[in-house]
């Protein structure tokens, strides 16, 4: 990583918490309640994109809940989420773009959240998106949008180094 160049600095863009309930009803409401307690934000209901007779879902059914956190709150939430998995991740949790995801098996492992008998035992996914400065200017602007060059993208190795240095994460042997 280039020293002193602020454009090369890797940052946490967003942290997304997700629970796939698989059906609407009480299970989905419990998932929404849990995500609200963990994040302090109002969760969004996710809809089925396809029809699947095997899982008994139709396109447009409410099947899950998610919440997205950005900025300093995202980093604080990520620190707490990493504590719940003992700051250990698998190296294969990282994709080519440097993003990574992991699961929290039971929400009672998450620091600051107590067991609620109404919710029961439930886990959730934590997805983290990393970026460098300037990505929005190149990729997401309306006029003259372009591709981000390979040198400006966050690679999996750079993401692993960033997470190990910034959050003290160790990588488990697979």
What's the topology here?
Blueprint: E1 10-20, H1 26-39, E2 44-47, E3 62-70, H2 72-84, E4 88-90, E5 100-104, E6 124-132, H3 135-140, H4 156-167, E7 170-172
Parallel strand pairs: 4-7
Antiparallel strand pairs: 1-3, 1-6, 2-3, 5-6
Oligomer: single chain
How is the biggest beta sheet arranged? Answer: 5 strands, antiparallel
Number of domains: 1
CATH architectural name: 2-Layer Sandwich
Q: What global shape is seen? A: globular
CATH structural class: Alpha Beta
Poorly predicted ranges (pLDDT <50, ≥5 residues)? Answer: none
State which percent range the strand residues make up. 25-35%
Q: What is the end-to-end distance? A: 27 Å
Radius of gyration: 18 Å
Brief sketch in words of this structure:
This protein has 174 residues and is of the alpha+beta class. The chain contains four helices and seven strands, in the order βαββαβββααβ.
Structure description:
With 174 residues, the protein is an alpha+beta fold. The chain has a single domain, classed as Ribosomal protein L5 (50s Ribosomal Protein L5, Chain: A, 2-Layer Sandwich), CATH 3.30.1440. 26% of the residues lie in helices and 25% in strands. It has 4 helices and 7 strands. The chain has helices spanning 26-39, 72-84, 135-140, 156-167, and strands at 10-20, 44-47, 62-70, 88-90, 100-104, 124-132, 170-172. The strands form 2 sheets. A 5-stranded antiparallel beta sheet has the order 2-3-1-6-5, with helices on one face. Strands 4-7 form a two-stranded parallel ribbon. The longest helix has 14 residues, at 26-39. The chain is globular and about 50 Å long. The model has no long low-confidence stretch (mean pLDDT 86).
